[in-house]
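Homework help board

Subject: predicted structure for assignment chain

Our instructor gave us this sequence and asked us to write out the predicted structure in token form, then describe one feature. I got the tokens but I'm not sure how to describe them. Can anyone check?
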Amino acid sequence: MQALLSFDKTPPFAAPLRFFITAPLFSLAAGLLLLWVGPDLLASRWTPGLLAATHLVTVGFMLMVMLGALIQILPVVAGANLDNPLAVARWLHAGLAAGALLLAAGFLLGNGALLGTAALLLGLAVATFLVASGRALAGVPSTSPTIRGLKLALVGLAGAIGLGAWLAVAIARGWAVALPSLADLHAGWALGAWAGTLLAAMAYVVVPMFQLTPGYPARPSWWFPGVMLGLMLAWGLAVWLDAPQGIRLAQVLSALLGIAFAVLTLRLQRQRRRARSDVTYRYWQLGLASAILALAMALTATAWPALADRAGWSILAGILLLVGGFMSFIIGMLYKIVPFLAWMHLRNRGGPRSPVPSMNRLLPEADAQRQMLAHAVALALLLAAVIAPDWLARPAGVVLAVASGWLMVNLLGAARRYRQHLEKLDREAVAA
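My token output:
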């Protein structure tokens, strides 16, 4: 089941593009941080280096791309037009970039002032976006699972950012809080209620559209976002009531829900009408397999809590979910969304009689495939580095930085080809 798309309402290409091109710099920085710190970064999930690297990926890369994509998606999918999208994009982009860097620096240096400033910047930037998107969505009926999912994902974003900002301030001021349980809750809201719900809402459109699969079944598509948000609320209530069994139940059900969505998507992909497997399809296959394995590890640790305390178990699951799962999904979509938007804007600018380069010419498939190989090697090395950090931590950091830099080069290449053809269209218009 898909939403109807209104490409006549698309914002200027510059609005989302700045987010897409900037985001790889943060995962590149995470790789360089691993290269610099070395094996000690992977000693525990609570090391300053790992906290910094994790937030470079989750805030600097994931949140950067997802909010940039929403600036494009809200008017096209939901008919929710942001007031002055370029101004919103500039403010949001600056706040996210500065906030992600300050947050990583605050964790790395143990500096409370940096953490507090980062929480303020990120909170203000995201709050501004939530207000702008909320105004745009006001009165828009939930006529499709995608529109409903987008609305609930924004609720999840508000919860994730609110919890994260509160935790950052609590750490900065030395408040006595139940850090492990609250950090897990923050991760649940960020990856389940926000990123997972947004991913599902977008999958309802982009998987059938770009991978030529059947549409998602209507009933699960409608209830998935609401159930995920409800589980996160129940998890938060259990933390507040200090009810360990309730926390475990919410964790188990949310992991099972994520696995069910991934398995359903794999099933739809097996029914695709396109015989050739392009890079987006392969990235999604990698992401789905990684996410299922990561969530299975989380389920196992919930059933046997001692596993979560074993060296490397939580880190392995986190790498699988973030680098293998969400980063793979996001990069796979970038390789379709960026050339598609470039092609669409060129077509709209040139008119029906002006030839427009194909999407594959704007961003060649061969370039994307080579970058995906680097990403897959980085994932494998990161997982192996948890087991043998002395030998593999720094090589893993190098390859992650290379894969991220390669992604940025590919996206910049598409932007450059778009700009070159746009200038050609302008010259032809003047000559005519």
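Reply (TA_rk): Your tokens look well-formed. For the description, you could write something like this. The mean pLDDT is 92. That's the kind of observation they're looking for.
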